[in-house]
Amino acid sequence: MPRDFHLPGRSPVIAGEGMAATSHPLATLAAIDVLRSGGNAVDAAVTAVAVLCVIEPHMTGIGGDCFVLISEQGKPVWGYNGCGRSGAKASAEALLAKGMRAIEATSPHSVNVPGAIEAWDAILKARGTIALEKALAPAIRYAEHGFPVAPRVAADWKGWVTKLGNSAGATKHYLFGGQAPAEGDTIKLPALAATLKAVAKDGPRAFYEGPVARDMVATLQAAGSVLTEDDFARHRGEAQTPISTNYRGVDLVELPPNTQGLTALVTLNVLEQFDLSKLDPLGPDRFHLMLEAARLGFAVRDTHIAEPSHMRVSVEALNDKAFAKRLASRLDPNKRVPLPAAPTPGSDTVYLTVVDRDRRAVSLINSLYSSFGSAICTEKTGVLFNNRGSGFVLDPGHPNALGPGKRPMHTIIPALAMRNGRCDTTFGVMGAHYQPMGHVQMVTNMVDFGMDVQAAIDAPRAFFEGERTVVERGMLAATVEGLKARGHDVVTAPTPWGGAQAIRIDWRRGVLIGGSEPRKDGCALGY
């Protein structure tokens, strides 16, 4: 589908040596600087995500988690799960006894041990060429000397002033005169810079043990958390073998549970039962099928996906094509049918991807979960905490119930599309619960409708909130009316969904083709 140059939009970026795509130009440039100086894609990705933790603090931070997929020629795809765990004293029963029925997003009980710093170090040691100290240098520079606030960052930030104002630490470090910064303001984060310097000097143990850890634990315990210094000191992520499904000749690769990557695979397996290529890619039939398949996939997620040791049905069984056919039999191509509902989506993560001259492809995602996470922030060290623990349920019999030292069902998922054993496209779509739907739409846009990576990202998006179907304002009016005619209660999304980045490797021509999210401030760059 060639671009119509009469219409607004952007072309995909094409380059031969290396490429990076992130949600902020400064992070993309930091990655390119690493590649041009001889670093590999892993070095560049960790450098870029550290920068994003400074310049997009509402979306991500060192108080969050990190997941990665890495493809290298001649090697199996390698994954790393940098998810933090609940405290050793965490208990669903204890919170139920206090009258809680769910873990609120700003509750101290929503905070898990942050996994990002350990993950960055582990990824660099396993597949990179530089030390964490060097990777953190650009982030430290921006935190210490300042950075200009980008337009989308400013627009999002001002919506969370009240949330930040409820925390003394967040007010001190992330509000300025009690207000959010405006577009173009230059701000500094000196406490965060000092914390990053400590990690750069002494490694990740400077974060999980010692003065920084004591400050974090003291802040959390004062708020009511059961996390301890031992919980922080014990934290380790883990290397993982990815899972995949084949969709019309392309293998979609995801990380296994506790992530929701399996949700995307189940949804694609259902969609494979229908010939989407005969449909209008922007029409109601295509969106109806995609929405209904996703509702089935999310019903599977919310029933079964959890920490693997607590799941009662195997990943293999849920990813089975025969199971998908059974699910697809519940789907009516002509009308919406009653199905279990999925949680409300959000957009509060950063995703980035880098490919180097050796065609090493890195798909990396880092998140606090909600915007500004829990908004609980240390006053001394400037660490803003995740609220990933709100992903647990408080039903003690559920596989995803809160428990001691446990990882929750996790929404953030990097992806790779492989063809004939080689990486075809590295991509991801930040956006909390929306992410599996975003992966499915990206894959079907490219595979079924032949879109390039930029067009696949640009296309209008739809999802669901409870019983409502929620569409972006860019959705065609005829498609909206067609969805209504099929039984969808359609409303318009108040803000755009998701943030995708993608790089395709054109092996035949020896070039890289990158796309970046127009709903964000970022860009793809190559050389």
Relevant terms:
19 helices, globular, single chain, seven-stranded antiparallel sheet, 527 residues, alpha+beta, Serum Albumin, Chain A, Domain 1
Rounded radius of gyration (Å):
22 Å
Span between N and C termini?
25 Å
Number of helices: 19
Task: Characterize the largest beta sheet: strand count, sense, and whether it forms a barrel.
Answer: 7 strands, antiparallel
Q: Regions with pLDDT < 50 over 5+ consecutive residues?
A: 341-347
What is the helical fraction, as a range of percent?
25-40%
Question: In CATH, what is the class of the domain at 241-347 and 413-508?
Answer: Mainly Alpha
Q: In percent terms, what proportion of residues is strand?
A: 15-25%
Strand order of the biggest β-sheet? 1-18-17-13-12-9-8
CATH homologous superfamily caption of the domain at 241-347 and 413-508: Gamma-glutamyltranspeptidase, large (L) subunit, C-terminal domain
**Helix-and-strand structural type:** alpha+beta
The assigned CATH architecture of the domain at 241-347 and 413-508 is Orthogonal Bundle
Q: Per CATH, what is the topology of the domain at 241-347 and 413-508?
A: Serum Albumin, Chain A, Domain 1
Q: What is the average per-residue confidence, as pLDDT, rounded to a whole number? A: 95
DSSP strand count: 19
Shape: globular
What features would you describe in this structure?
This protein has 527 residues and is of the alpha+beta class. The protein has a domain at 241-347 and 413-508: Serum Albumin, Chain A, Domain 1, CATH 1.10.246.130. Helix content is 35%, strand content 18%. The chain is built from 19 helices and 19 strands. It has helices at 25-36, 41-55, 92-97, 116-127, 132-145, 151-157, 161-165, 168-174, 190-202, 205-208, 211-223, 229-234, 261-271, 284-304, 315-318, 321-328, 435-447, 453-458, 477-485; strands at residues 13-15, 19-22, 65-71, 78-82, 147-148, 186-187, 238-240, 243-247, 250-254, 349-355, 361-367, 415-419, 422-430, 462-465, 468-471, 489-492, 499-506, 511-516, 523-526. The strands form four sheets. Strands 1-18-17-13-12-9-8 form a seven-stranded antiparallel β-sheet. A hairpin with a 2-residue loop joins strand 14 (462-465) and strand 15 (468-471). Helix 5 packs antiparallel against helix 9, helix 13 (261-271) crosses helix 16 (321-328) and helix 14 (284-304) crosses helix 19 (477-485). The longest helix is centred in the middle third of the chain and has 21 residues, at 284-304. It is globular.
